[in-house]
Amino acid sequence: MVRHSFRSLSVRNFRYFTLGQVLSVTCGSMMFVAQDWLVLSMSGDSAQTLGLVTALQFAPVLLCSLYAGRLADRYDKRALLVLANIAAGTLALLMGLLLLSGAEQLWHVYVFALALGTVNAVETPARMSFVSEMVGPDLLPNASAMSAAYFNVARIAGPAIAGVAISGFGVVSVVLLNAVSYVATVTALLVMRPHELQRPEVRAHDAKVSDGLRYLAGRPDLVLPLVLVACVGLLGFNFQLVLPLLAKTVFHTGSASFGMLTTALAAGSLAAAFVTAGRSGRPSHRLVLGAALAFAAVETAAGLVTGYAAALVLLGATGFAAAYFAQAANHRIQLGSDPQYRGRVMALYFLIFQGSTPVGALICGWIADHWGVRVVLWGGGLASLVVTVVLVFVSAAYRLELADAARPKEPGQDRPDRPGEEYKTRASTG
Predict the structure, then answer these.
(1) Residues 46, 40: Cα–Cα separation, whole Å
(2) Residues 147-158: pLDDT tens digits?
(3) Which of 76, 276, 300, 409 has the lowest CB atom count within 10 Å?
(4) Do the Cβ atoms of 37 and 171 come closer than 8 Å?
(5) Axis-axis angle for helices 12-43, 255-276 (nearest 10)
(6) Residue 275 CB neighbours (<10 A)
(7) Which contiguous run of DSSP H or E holds residue 217?
């Protein structure tokens, strides 16, 4: 069973990629904790200021992700990832040097968050669609779960280490360590064997964003999880804002306890990643909806408890439900997408999933300043619950269309009437 869960790591390129990502994402997670703590320290624990920084960090997703998906479908994904990681490492180094000088101001953090967000908006669609090139379609669900696993290992180790490092050596030590960690990611990408990558036979050199949107317009089985991800992401996935505020304004703890809250959330997410590692096929839309309902319920409960220990337990459950839902939606969308359009489809998924964060962060920052951070947590859970219930009824009304869209095309069917269908018919006939 354990060997089955790690089978995608038998692929050399993916194994090197994972090793590089574990170190880089761990240090990146540490850096975000340090950034949030720095902002709260410089702003007098202002929730709105933290919300603004979070919004700036994720705003480029709204502007750049669809174009980045076009780049991922048109150009070499590995080369794009090398350039993006070099850029991110350079930004972290510059921020670290600024902190060493002692001349940092809040506007410097704003610029850094915006610049790093721009790099991430380009890097993430390429990275998400590159996984399928490393392992192929059969191992894609397992590789996707492994990617979620190392991400959540990083989120467990990163905040805990960051809390201790900030207390002992200051924020600058974490930022500089993050800058160095990008060397591991770039090295892992450079030592890969390009001839072992499973790239599409036909690269979309004239790939257009509009073609990807038209392709999605004819796929209700992809649109429904995208809508659900948009709503839940906007209403319920605001943990980067909520957790530091819980630590500082509700439980009145230090950076180490803040790291523990983040670690609890990540531990639940890691457990979900290992549970989904055994998945071998495309999840049903019912599974996606059920996972969203479970997430909404446990997040609401996490916002209502008053004790620190109870909050840790329920944040762990929230992390599990959040990651399980995100993985189910990701697998349903990615495994149902035509390879020629996968970069643009995953870019839209990333745009919707992360692009809702700037709007949500600003709204939640305002709510937290006026009514408290607990309202953000349980209110987001209740709102997510209402939206999911509505979409359950919508999916029931369109269940025939969803089933038809999910059914594989057979040779000899009518001529395709939307982008991507001709590619799938050719593939099925060999």
Answers:
(1) 6
(2) 777 776 776 677
(3) 409
(4) yes
(5) 150
(6) 15
(7) helix 209-217
